[in-house]
Automatic annotation (TrEMBL):
Keywords: Cell inner membrane, Cell membrane, Membrane, Transmembrane, Transmembrane helix, Transport. InterPro entries: DctM, TRAP_DctM. Belongs to the TRAP transporter large permease family. Coiled coil: none annotated. Its main location: membrane. The complex comprises the extracytoplasmic solute receptor protein and the two transmembrane proteins. Pfam families: DctM. This is TRAP transporter large permease protein. Residues 8-416 form the TRAP C4-dicarboxylate transport system permease DctM subunit domain. Part of the tripartite ATP-independent periplasmic (TRAP) transport system.
Amino acid sequence: MTIAVFIGSLLGVMALGVPIAFALLASGVALMWHLDIFDSQILAQNVIGGADSFPLLAVPFFMLAGEIMNVGGLSRRIVDLALALVGHVKGGLGYVTIMAGCLLSALSGSAVADAAALTALLLPMMVSAGHKKETAGGLIAATGVIGPVIPPSIGLVIFGVAANVSISKLFMAAIVPGLMIGGALWLTWAWLVRREKVVPPPRKSAQEIATAFRKALWALMLPVIILVGLRMGVFTPTEAAVVAAVYALFVSTLVYRELKLNQLYAVFVSAAKTSAIVMFLIAAAMVSAWLITVADLPAKVVDLLQPFMGNKILLMAAIMVLVMVVGTAMDMTPTILILTPVLMPLVRAAGIDPVYFGVLFIINNSIGLVTPPVGTVLNVVAGVGKMRMDDVTRGVVPFMVAEFLIMFLMVAFPALVIVPARWFGG
């Protein structure tokens, strides 16, 4: 009955069109009434305490870094470098999208920011070259999924805080899985364009490649600084976010000189608005998280999944299917905040590595950004690329299937995540 009250109230309020943050608060109030412990002071304390977290400071700073990179020319130079390297091969612009997506993921950690930048820069080029607009849009949307996986990742930060798992270990463990998703997109694109008669641009000379690399070098140094700093213990993930924002600001204003001082206000306001939405969502979700613990919902979920408890792989597969279903109707951040306190006790009870689970959980939630009908990244690509939502959805299907296959491959073979994580010290 407790589960029915929580889920029923949450979905019922969402069905009325209430924003998800307020829906979470409403479901929390409903659960408090059901448990006969309603107290407005508890509600207020959990909302304030939910946002009062030092690790969560990484979220606004990574978002600020992403905004600065897009306005300051870092993103464009990454795309230019990818064009110089692989733009000349058959279907080269698709490979450029994937390569640039992986590189941008190591800069911003936001699927929406990466998808918007790639759509604005590459979609017109791909259409002009003769590629189908829906396939090109689908590839860009699917590439945006890599953003929350390859560190630095806002999704991993939120999960780490909610699950009390080391964010540094999550970052290191997610590197190889993120690249594997990029590899899956690469193979899928190669299969789709094998019969296309698109004439690629001529191969760039060694001098042109060197010039593109030199121009992008400052942008490429950012992920190196962050990952090496985290690996060597120079700074925490929160401090890494500050380093990313300050470095991006320095490069954009003093090196590339594309970000003017009169543009700074707009950039800061844009980042602040996005951060405020995410942080209020996190704060509201903490009310539900506290009540989930009080109502002992994890124990009830353990009872429901008891048949799978003896087999870690089957249990992980069942959890991933559950998250897939939820991801079709809910955005990434609320899914993380709602399901993490429910699933983590189950994961720990089954003896599953929390870091391994966290990486797969975030991958699944990231793919949820391109699963209709809610897919946030699909809406971004459709809006920026001036496309119909239906066209982007059709185009993303083969890439989305490839991403899910890679995810379940990692479910079946946990060593694909765990072993590389040990290489990177995760």
